[in-house]
Task: inverse folding
């Protein structure tokens, strides 16, 4: 990676005040070369200390080309964002294979970039970069599936998490899943989807009609951004609403994202985070027993 002016300025929104710009100086300025495993030390630590099965999370390769490709710098090594993407595929695919070999029972791929393709502002931003958003979306799915090819074994769960940004209680994209749902849910080689659904920014449950019957859907109805506890009755009502499109036995409940997707975390205290998790557990027991 090379240091240069920000490759992309993202507009983070909420809570309070005007939208804030945040750029990245971590742009690709050389040929990528993996010098160590991405999650080896974390996987070793968890296997040694966790009292039960563990989940490991890795980023999708789609996370990086839109924010780490800088014209005039990156193109000397990767002429297009597509070329950079496929170089990253090899790294992520190798990491997933290593986690399978480690015996990790639950692997999650984090894929917030799919939110670009449901937000008209981000779709226009991609056009402004000289990219076609629909072509990029198709390639994003192909890249994720290439990473996941062969990452199957008995007893392994592979999941994909999709959100709209999560940093200091801010977000950067909005829009329901409808424009991408059929292809997104129907063609990715994962067992379950963890989907943001805590605010109106994520749209309705209707796009879940495209969900194959053999997939699990984890409804992210509990906000990791806001400290206020959700109403359990409202959570149960929304789970019931989602069950019109996905059978109740194929649904689960979670926070919509992590409490600390970045080092800065979100604007919640540790105690408030525990109350959120307790609400998830209590609600799940009442719904599913």
Result:
């Amino acid at each position: 990676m090379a240091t240069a002016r920000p490759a992309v300025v993202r507009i983070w929104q909420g809570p309070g005040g005007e939208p804030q710009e945040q750029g990245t100086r971590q742009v690709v300025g050389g040929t990528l070369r993996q010098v160590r495993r991405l999650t080896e030390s974390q996987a070793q630590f968890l296997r040694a200390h966790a009292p039960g099965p563990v989940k490991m999370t890795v980023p999708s390769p789609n996370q990086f080309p839109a924010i780490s490709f800088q014209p005039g710098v990156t193109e000397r090594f990767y002429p297009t964002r597509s070329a950079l993407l496929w170089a990253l595929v090899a790294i992520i695919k190798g990491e997933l294979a290593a986690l399978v070999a480690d015996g990790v029972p639950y692997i999650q791929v984090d894929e917030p970039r799919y939110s670009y393709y449901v937000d008209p502002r981000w779709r226009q931003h991609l056009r402004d970069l000289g990219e076609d958003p629909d072509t990029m979306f198709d390639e994003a799915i192909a890249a994720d599936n290439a990473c996941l090819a062969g990452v199957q074994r008995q007893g392994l769960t592979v999941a994909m998490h999709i959100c709209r940004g999560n940093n200091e209680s801010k977000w950067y994209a909005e829009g329901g899943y409808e424009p991408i749902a059929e292809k997104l849910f129907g063609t990715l080689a994962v067992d379950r989807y963890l989907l943001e659904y805590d605010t109106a920014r994520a749209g309705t449950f209707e796009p879940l009609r495209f969900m194959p019957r053999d997939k699990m859907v984890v409804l992210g109805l509990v906000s990791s951004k806001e400290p206020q506890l959700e109403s359990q009755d409202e959570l149960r009502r929304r789970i019931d609403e989602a069950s019109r499109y996905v059978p109740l036995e194929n649904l689960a409940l979670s926070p919509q994202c992590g409490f600390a997707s970045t080092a800065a975390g979100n604007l919640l205290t540790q105690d408030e985070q525990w109350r959120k998790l307790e609400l998830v557990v209590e609600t799940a027991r009442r719904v599913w027993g």
